[in-house]
Amino acid sequence: MSLTIVGFSSAPLPHPPPHLPPIPLDRSMHAPIHFRPLALLALAALLSACQPASNSASPAAAASAPTASAPANGASAPATGAPVSVTLVQPQKRDMGLDLRTTGTVVAVTAVDVRAQASNPVVAVHVKEGQWVKAGERLVTLDTRNDEANVARLTAQKAKDQAALADAQRQLARAKDLVAQKFMSQSAVDTAQAQVDAQSANVAADQAAIDQARVTLSYGTVKAPISGRVGLVGVNPGSALIANQTAITTITQLDPIQVQFTLPQDQLADALRAVASGKGTVTATLPATGATVQGKLQFVDSQVDAASGTIKAKANFANKDQALWPGAYVQVALTLKQLNDALVIPQAAIVTSQRGTAVFVLEDGKAVAKPIKTVYAANGEAAVTGLKGDERIVLDGRQNVRPGAALVERKPQDKGADKAGSKDGAAKSADAPRPAASAQ
């Protein structure tokens, strides 16, 4: 902005009146005294001249600028008080089981590691891996020649001691005859009797040794202790076994089978009642296939884990089709008790706020909030109190509902059509021509 000073004259300053003495001033003082007031007056005149122009331009600019509250592109604002489209459901009165859900592990009722009880070489293996066997069925045969020889030796020793016993018995009888004839003293009879008793003890000891040797001989045939499925076989013919150390195989009982899991300690009383009554129904769900198997709660441990606040429990399952396998993880649902004649509603219809839980109910065409209390919720359903049972509850569209809002019911199958209509409306609005921008 350029500033032009008007009214400036280059004429020489007038001389002071003759009656006043001249004031001695140097050249540098002339400008501040005479020129500065003129410059200030000129600047004030310019500012006063510019002020009306700026004020007159403001209304025009304000008139041409669009207001923020006006809708863009000429769109109209939505009308207030329009009915909200919702779907309605009614509470159902029925029994609802209280399920406790957790994760469990499948365990075998019985699993036995088969080991040899004699340090003998393997002669033959009579089973294959994965084979089903019955209790007492032969698994492995060991070399028992040494044990057989030991039994024969002990049998011969018994025969020798039996012969000595017979001789002692004859000596005793002879001594008794001589004592009766008073040819020997009674001490001779006592000595003969002691010999008979000693030989009788030797014969009994021999028989015990033979029995022990026969037990050792029986270890040469390894038999299945239980009925079940044979696991990996760790020996072959010719393998040298060490007594009670070398594992031959593992036999696992798969039917029936058990699932082990933990319960919260606050459910202990209900779990014990379920075990006592035999009504503790347990459902095991396989994660891979989603198949379910029904069983019964069988066992609750006698001690609560202080670190986790839980208690161990087991359930028995029939497993004829081998759906459950030891070591597998399953989802467990335990029904401890049932709620009889409970009011059941979809869990999605419940609205949670700072005041608590409630549902929107249609009354006289408007939404009314009804406070409720959730007793139990599972699988998308909830047993509640606070309703009579004949209400019509808002399900879909509840996010747009406010207390007192007008409601209009739509069929559940119309949801897809509404979504398609909204997409078509959005496409049409996107394709609509827009007004051209005004030139500046």
Strand numbers in spatial order across the main sheet? 3-11-14-13-12-15
Number of helices: 5
Distance between the termini: 23 Å
Order of helices and strands: HEEEEEEEHHEEEEHEEEEEEEEEEEH
In total, the number of strands is: 22
Strand content: 25-35%
Give the % helix: 25-40%
Quick description:
With 440 residues, this protein is an alpha+beta fold. 30% of the residues lie in helices and 30% in strands.
Descriptive tags:
6-stranded antiparallel barrel, 30% strand, 30% helix, alpha+beta, 5 helices, disordered C terminus, 4-stranded antiparallel beta sheet, disordered N terminus, 440 residues
Describe the structure.
- The strands form six sheets. The protein has a six-stranded antiparallel barrel with strand order 3-11-14-13-12-15. The protein has a four-stranded antiparallel sheet with strand order 4-10-9-6, with no helix packed on it.
- Helices cover 30% and strands 30% of the residues.
- The protein is elongated, with a radius of gyration of 54 Å.
- Mean pLDDT is 80; it is low at 1-14, 23-35, 52-80 and 414-440.
- A hairpin with a 2-residue loop joins β16 and β17 (356-363).
- The chain has helices at 30-64, 145-180, 186-218, 268-277, 415-431; strands at 84-86, 88-89, 92-108, 111-115, 122-125, 132-133, 138-142, 221-223, 228-230, 247-252, 257-264, 281-285, 292-300, 310-317, 329-346, 351-353, 356-363, 366-371, 373-378, 381-385, 393-394, 407-409.
- The chain has 440 residues and is of the alpha+beta class.
